[in-house]
Design a protein that fits this description.
301 residues; alpha+beta; Uridine Diphospho-n-acetylenolpyruvylglucosamine Reductase, domain 2; Uridine Diphospho-n-acetylenolpyruvylglucosamine Reductase, domain 3; Enolase-like, domain 1; 3 domains; 4-stranded antiparallel beta sheet; 11 helices; 14 strands; 38% helix; globular
């Protein structure tokens, strides 16, 4: 199929972009990796495509006040290769899993987050890190935390006249460790289940959270501190990776049962996805914890 007829505009400023979006039926075009297939299948019929690639300020990638600021037209491949992404290790872990290199070379970070596919990696990363979204319209700007941003499958709080101008990812602090993994039938396919993990160990304090994707209509974040503490109490204060994985495996099933609420489909049943999530949790929480303890030792020295 081919897209239904539409008008095309290419503004040069953010002000002109949001002015165009204020018109009924306008849709943002950045990388087009999600939008173009939707147009081709006529699942969407916008009256106007607003191409934002000619706006220089939307192509900025910088570090500011403890965050990495990613503009609306920054490509995933650029962020993956930029040294700035090293300060947000979870991004570095997740970006290679997105589609294929050619997809990442055109797809934008903000575009993936705004599209809010339940099986996509970047919405889960944003949720796990509690990233901040900057939305701009003719009415002004507002900031939305990731916990409030995603509302359902392919649905966010973005209003039709708003542009996701930037996403702010917090940089990793001392004593933080991360893990990321997913299961797909082939590399580049949509994930049947995936998990992004952040663990913080500072002194006697311990905090662990996991955001799962591909298992509900939006990323689902759960606190797994209690499960990690129980596993550590069982295997000892200085476990190996395999010991900690075994200890976590006994407790991961209950978390998986809570977070996986999608019904079965032609790709995987609910029970199978829960098994996948349980395995991911045990592996990635273990990995994140061991990384966090190493980071704590380095910062202490």
């Amino acid at each position: 199929m081919k897209a239904a007829p539409f008008a095309y505009v290419r503004p040069g400023t953010v002000q002109d972009v949001v002015a165009e979006l204020a018109r009924d039926g306008a849709k943002v075009l950045a990388g087009g990796q999600s939008l173009v297939p939707v147009l081709a299948m006529r699942l969407g019929r916008p009256s106007t495509l607003v191409d934002i690639n000619a706006v220089p300020e939307l192509d900025r990638l910088s570090r500011d006040n403890g965050s990495i600021r990613v503009g609306a037209t920054v490509r995933q491949r650029r962020l993956q290769r930029d040294d700035l992404s090293a300060s947000v290790p979870l991004l570095r872990l997740a970006l290679p899993w997105i589609g294929h290199r050619e997809i990442r070379s055109r797809g934008t970070v903000c575009g993936s987050i705004a599209h809010a596919d339940p099986a996509a990696e970047l919405p889960a990363v944003a949720s796990c890190l509690d990233a901040t979204m900057l939305l701009t319209s003719t009415r002004g700007q507002r900031q939305i935390a990731a916990a409030e941003f995603f509302t359902g499958a392919l649905t966010t709080v973005i209003e039709p006249d708003e542009l996701l101008t930037e996403v702010l990812f917090p940089v990793a602090g001392p004593g933080e460790g991360f893990g990321f993994g997913e299961f797909a039938r082939r590399h580049g396919d949509f994930a049947l289940a995936g998990a992004a993990v952040r663990v913080r160990t500072t002194g006697d304090a311990l905090q662990a959270r996991v955001t799962c994707f591909g298992i509900s209509d939006q990323p689902v974040t759960a606190d797994v501190t209690a499960q990690l503490r129980a596993a550590l109490a069982e295997v000892g204060p200085s476990p190996t990776g395999s010991q900690l994985r075994r200890g976590l495996a006994e407790r991961a099933d209950e978390v998986a049962a809570d977070v996986v609420d999608t019904s079965g489909d032609g790709h995987a049943s609910t029970a199978y996805r829960r098994r996948l999530v349980a395995g991911l949790l045990a592996r990635e929480v273990s990995r994140a914890y061991l990384t966090s303890t190493s980071a704590s030792e380095v910062s202490a020295s």
